[in-house]
Amino acid sequence: PTNTSDDTGVVFRKTTGHYTVRANGRDIDCVLSSLIRKQLIYPTADPASLRHRVQEIRELDHVDPIAIGDQVRFVRIADAGPDRGMITEVLPRLSKLSRPATVPGQHVFEQVIVANVDLVIPVFAVADPTPKWGLLDRYLVSAESSKLPVLIVITKLDLAWKNKELEADIEAYRRAGYPIQMVSVNTGEGIEELKQTLRGRMSVLVGKSGVGKTSLLNAIQPGLGLRVKEVSKGEQGKGRHTTTHLEMFELEFGGTLVDTPGIREFGLWEIAGEELAYLFPEMAHFVGQCKFGLSCQHDREPGCAIRKAVVSGEISPHRYKSYMNLRGEL
């Protein structure tokens, strides 16, 4: 079919095998061309030769090659109705937030949670549940490795009396350079500021259930929390590594928002042990200053600049412990 002016759009919703692509204000229900699932492997014996022979065709190493936020090219399927199409190409991504995923019997591969995102928003509650800062550190390292800006949102501020350690805990993140927004749905504190930050951006929320994301979304835009909850309900009982149904929501005041339901674990994708310290902003400028230079593991070596900075209080002991835990995994 000939390409028309509206043959590109953004993936707003996906369920197994189906994608809603928004193009020029209309939603097109799309399926995926089988060509996208295949990758052509060409022989490299004679790079000068223009006559490539396809050596093999193999499946792409993805659960799903399309992510929410992807800009895609599609063709309309005329005989299937006016709002039906087939995705033929994924346009280059400006950014992506990924994690490793496994399918039984297969190796670990990349699961792109969301593409072309502008802002990652980890959401944690002051109390009920008690914050697991190690999980926040995972989110932050993942965002840093994708060069994505972060806004840490702390909800349930009216429960601050339940967590005497809170100020000291979040000070470590402030000192590392991360912006923090404290909000309370009950008192309305911080909600307007948060809306200002979200305006005009594509943001993704990450965080465990129970931290108050639904009420926070309702406070940002009435009814939004309920719509997001309906999406995540479909994820209950699914495997730990599959997020088969995701949706991006338009904000009335401008911008879009994606919630990530069902992510109980958050592994790190394609991060090498030696680069990990660079992904902790407060450690990055100490890398290479150690006695053993870049080969330093920052563990027990004498003359380690990072350990010295922990002792002198320049790096939070908790963040250092997180670093060592993650280093052990890589």
Per-chain topology:
Blueprint (H helix, E strand, L loop, with lengths): L7 E8 L2 E6 L2 E7 L1 H4 E4 L14 E4 L11 E6 L7 E7 L5 E7 L5 E8 L3 E7 L7 H13 L6 E4 L10 H10 L4 E3 L8 H8 L3 E5 L6 H8 L3 H10 L12 E5 L5 E4 L21 H4 L20 H7 L5 H13 L1
Parallel strand pairs: 3-7, 10-11, 10-13, 11-12, 13-15
Antiparallel strand pairs: 1-2, 1-6, 1-14, 2-3, 4-5, 6-7, 8-9, 14-15
Helix pairs in contact: 2-9, 5-6
What does this entry look like structurally?
The chain has a 5-stranded mixed beta barrel. A two-stranded antiparallel sheet has the order 4-5. Strands 8-9 form a two-stranded antiparallel sheet. It is an alpha/beta fold. Helix 2 crosses helix 9 (317-329) and helix 5 packs antiparallel against helix 6 (224-233). Strand 8 and strand 9 form a beta hairpin. It contains 9 helices and 15 strands.
* Overall average residue pLDDT: 84
User: Which structural class matches the secondary elements?
Assistant: alpha/beta
- Placed side by side, the strands forming the largest sheet appear as 1-2-3-7-6
What is the CA-based Rg, rounded? 22 Å
Low-confidence stretches: 1-5, 236-243
Number of helices: 9
β-strand number = 15
Order of SSEs? EEEHEEEEEEEHEHEHEHHEEHHH
Main sheet, how many strands, which sense, barrel? 5 strands, mixed, barrel
What is the overall silhouette?
globular
- Gap from first CA to last CA: 47 Å
Helical residue percent band? 10-25%
How much of the sequence lies in strands comes to 25-35%
